[in-house]
Amino acid sequence: MKALITAGGQGTRLRPITYTINKHLFPIANKPMIFHALEKIAKVGIKEVAININEGDKELPVAVGQGKKFGLKITYLEQKGGPLGLAHIIANAKSWIGQDDLLFYLGDNIVAGDLKPLIDKFYQEKLDCLLALSHVRDPKRFGVPVIQKGKILKVEEKPAKPKSNFAVTGIYVYKPIIVEATSRIKPSARGEYEISDAHTYLIKKNYRIGYQEITGWWKDTGKPEDLLEGNSLILSSLQGLDLPFTQLKKEWQIEGAVKIGKGTKLRGRVVIRGPVIIGENCLIENACIDPYTSVGDNVIIQGTEVSHSIICSGTQILQCGVRIVDSLIGRNSIVKAEDFTLPSGHKLIIGDNAQVEL
Length: 358
Fold this sequence. Notes:
This protein is of the alpha/beta class. The protein has 2 domains: 2-222, Alpha-Beta Complex (Spore Coat Polysaccharide Biosynthesis Protein SpsA, Chain A), CATH 3.90.550.10; 241-336, 3 Solenoid (UDP N-Acetylglucosamine Acyltransferase, domain 1). The protein contains 8 helices and 27 strands. The strands form 6 sheets. Strands 15, 17, 19, 21, 22, 24, 25 and 27 form an 8-stranded parallel sheet that branches. The chain has a 7-stranded mixed sheet with strand order 5-4-1-6-11-8-12, with helices on both faces. A 6-stranded parallel sheet has the order 14-16-18-20-23-26. Helix 3 crosses helix 6 and helix 6 (177-184) crosses helix 7.
């Protein structure tokens, strides 16, 4: 079995963050999002992986490499003609897939647990296609299966009136017949080759289609709040203390599951309540870091409280005297109090699609 990971698209719903970083490289619990997918795939013994990227994308291959650190051999496939749908990604990978079985994994999905139960069921039941399903609050955003008597009759893509609360998650297992299916469908009304139509093609041709509900949790990180929730879910798995120093000063209060990288310094009165992860070579001074916060490398946080946020590497948060919550702060940003420099007042440099609360 090979694995194909999607890492293309424009990430428009995550702008302005995605103006300067590929969505799939955005850090979740201080690790690029796509690394979580690669680790899951490596754990089930798959060795060959292809990553679908946008035409001309150099950033992602440089960041991910050839796969040695994951025990994988990674190939990069540019999606010619731009993002034309998930089925088009598989059709584009036809020669690479060959006659091998395929695990198709959307690179912006975060899942708990192991992929092994999905693959085991695929082989035990001798399926041609297995869809991983999850209960969701808003199925209109996803492909929704129509299920009767335990069988999937069809899959409707982003239906206005969903027939169930199940969504087809971003994990699929296929026999190579999926390549034929993706080549036989036509573009949808929105001009894309829908993976749901490929599934419906297989169903109509009487291929064996099965499904498995994902246990634990699954998150599609399409919106800023999804990134925060995915970050929180992964941080929830942290256990104990992992600190670069052996003694805690009396002015420090560290509780819960907390991981701090080497070279990071704490100064003054510091409160850290886990689950929290803090990267390497940071300075946390007279500050409070509350649960479900990830702080990247080389970050300075002084005189500020931060909660349920992702602070990317190189950022400085200086003497704000306020509480920062539910926030995504990109790389090498500066956030400081309005009276930190003169003249005082709120000074803003805001790009497209930004959101600021004062």
